[in-house]
Amino acid sequence: MKIILLISLLLIIEVTSFKALGIDLSGWDEVVYWDTLKKQVKFVILRAGIGQGGSDAVYENYYKKCKEIGMPVGAYWYAKATTVQAAQQEAYYMLEKLKGKQFEYPIYYDIEHEPMLNTGKEMVSKMLKAFCSIMESHKYYCGVYSSKYYLETLFTEEVLNLYDIWLAHYASSTSYKRHKIWQYTDSGSLSGKPGDCDLNYCYYDYPTLIKSLHFNGF
């Protein structure tokens, strides 16, 4: 059972009018002017690593830059597990990347790798639960990132009810309603960052909630 479930009955903060623009970044993304970026977005979600311990080349530096400019930040792990044991190992790799840091936004398990998806609905759901259970046991607020199609077809209702959803669906609108963050394009543009970028809307005041719960290093 999700750790936060009982606590959130008292402390959950529903902000239905809340809407913040954010960007997610990985080693594919170069940021030239962080102060310029800060004027345009309200949060950043960083890729911490990939699969069985692979580090993202920009993660440490970009985390430092975010903290220097006062940018709220979250993180995600690009999953490549095909067994529950591998998903658990990815969680422990992620914990190493989170150590000594503070995150105002959730820690996400990014499920989009084809061999992982091919394991089927029950296994994908078990792997997500295995990863997130370890995160929560170490007081991290976690969730799942995946596309609308896979969220609708490759996850059980149990896990979708347990973990917050970061939806990937590139469109001007979406019929999916269970998400708290929506990655609505992978071809956005921002001053201070060359090339296309992923842009996201967040509809939830995560910084206030996470700090009040003393999760994510707070």
Could you give a short description of this structure?
The chain is an alpha/beta fold and 218 residues long. The protein contains 9 helices and 9 strands.
CA-based shape: globular
The percentage of residues in β strands lies in 25-35%
Distance between the termini: 22 Å
Based on helices, strands and strand pairing, what is the structural class?
A: alpha/beta
Give the biggest beta sheet: 8 strands, mixed, barrel
Mean pLDDT equals 93
Q: Count the beta strands.
A: 9
CA-atom Rg in angstroms: 16 Å
Low-confidence stretches: 5-15
User: What's the arrangement of strands in the largest beta sheet?
Assistant: 1-2-4-5-6-7-8-9
Succession of helices and strands:
HEHEEHEHEHHEHHEEEH
Helix content: 25-40%
Number of helices: 9
Describe it.
The chain is α/β, with parallel strands linked by helices and 218 residues long. The protein contains nine helices and nine strands. It has an eight-stranded mixed beta barrel with strand order 1-2-4-5-6-7-8-9. A hairpin with a 2-residue loop joins strand 8 and strand 9. The protein is globular. It starts with a helix and ends in a 5-residue tail after the last helix. About 5% of the residues have low confidence.
Features:
218 residues, globular, 8-stranded mixed beta barrel, alpha/beta, 9 helices
